[in-house]
Structure prediction request, 394 residues.
Amino acid sequence: MANLEVEIVAADHAVWSGAAKMVKARTSDGEIGILPGHSPLLAILAEGELAIEPLDGARIAVTVDGGFFSVDSDRVVIVADNAQLHDGTGAANAGAR
Amino acid sequence: MGAQIRVYRQKISSTTSMRKIFKAMELIATSRIGKARARVAASLPYANAITRAVSAVASQSEIDHPLTTEPEQIRRAAVVIVASDRGLAGSYSASVLKQSEQLSELLAVEGKEVKYFLVGRKAQAYFEFRNRSYERVWTGGTDAPEFSTAQEIGAVVLEAFGTDFEKGGVDEIHIVSTRFQSMVVQVPQVVRLLPLEVVEETATSEADLLPLYEFEPETEQVLDALLPRYIESRIFAALLQAAASELAARQRAMKSAGDNATELIKKYTRLRNTARQAEITQELSEIVAGADALNAS
Prediction:
């Protein structure tokens, strides 16, 4: 099965990028899960957490406070105003801004 | 004669201490440019993602959004001028201000009123010295701009843009800043921020074709959220480029100031030596002449 190519960018730096099996995000309408092969989508992110399941390793949680994301041909670009990354160990790294 | 030597000595020592300052400022600017350029590079993914999304929305739906529609009549324009906080950067601020003067003239010829928004103390000083009014000024940190400043500027200009002309609103927004082309070339430029000129991407190959996006929730709401961010990212990019340009201009200015100081020191040292030599020669000839006079008597 194909993988998702995920890229998370904040205003002045790239937060995370890599391959993933699934991305779960919260839009202004509700939660949405994106699997490989999703149709192209451009949606507004709501404040809150989004989860990424990378190909290997633990699930990654990212706290964002607004932004948008686009999906096209298995490429997910998450554009956040401010993103805080929590990796599997629970330690917050790669500070926002 | 002795007085002349003393004057030269004073000049040499003051030029030497000034050269130290120039050298230090050059080194500081040099060390900061790398960081400023890295920040420009780091902001690119965000800017690219937003630009791509905006052109995707623009290319497939007939956008009729207040931010993208050209008003029938443009009566008042806002100009954001990005200059520096501190001087000693050669012609950096001066060339930005010159560029904005040209823009103001052009707008005046077109019969538009101009409102100014300033960034940097040098721009503020320029306006205050000439007793010209401006709407708002942001100072501090022009050499290391924060994203929050860009957000603030974005919010202020968008608010002015959203206000009716009768209530003091503006119909278009320009930004005058400096584009960092390379370490030696920085070009002052004018960009019209609003109304947006969405550049339609021309697809060169199959892969470049923008996909048909679905929008969530609605196209209009997506645009509402997207366009202010696009503006912010454009302003932030302009601020970062300006910061890199400012540092590069300062580095160059300080380098040539240091070189000039070295030249001056060389010149004064020669003059001092000549003066000292002349003094010795004169003293000698006076002694010889005195001895001769004594012998003759």
